[in-house]
Specification:
60% of the residues lie in helices and 4% in strands. The chain contains ten helices and three strands. Keywords: DNA-binding, Transcription, Transcription regulation.
Amino acid sequence: MNDDTTNLLEPPAGPETPGAAGTQGMPGVPAAANPLAEQVYQQLKNDIFSFRLFPGDRFSENGIAQHYGVSRTPMRDGLFRLQREGYLEVGFRRGWKVAPINFDQLDQLYDLRIVLEVAAVERVGVGGDVAHAAVEALKAIWCVEPELRESDPVKMFGMDENFHRQLVAATGNAEMLRVHNEVTERIRIVRRLDFLKPHRTSATYDEHSTMLNLIERNRLTEAIILLRAHITQSKLEVRKITLSMLAAARDSKLPFVS
């Protein structure tokens, strides 16, 4: 592995990174000691999530440095952070490889998501004015006529994530929201594939709007049954994902991939 150094990296900066030795990689530790490492991390993660970097793709540190125009130290910081999170693998004299998708882990994350969101519905259903306002704000987005519904799959993916995040946020429990955000991040790589199927878009609108109306009427048992079915369906769709489906979702192959 080489230690080429070149220019500055230009992609948009992301959120703050974990801090220096002893705390690096620990969740919730704000430090952002190396902005270039953060930029490498965010750009590579975006490339993995968009399948420009595909499960099994191999690349070298020299290739990354030349492509992004960044020196070895921040580049390696970003790479090792992605390795700790399970997105990359590294081997002696073999370079770096995008990790395969761990479907067993995804199953467990979906189960955790169900636990968190069921608890959120129970709390929002008996909540006060803040919870009620959150439900009304979501209804303004999801309880609309068919001709007003969003159809773009990329936008729908973001809207769906935000729906579930806002349900949890409406509880006022910051720790629940933090864990839910972490789960959302971990399943994002496959969850967006859901909205490449047109029927999932209309089903999502129907299920979200029904769920919100049930919560508003305090019919929480029915809302929870629907929520469980809604998330379980997404979980089952993940199990149907094949390498050919991933390849079809791939935007383009990056030039440094061997």
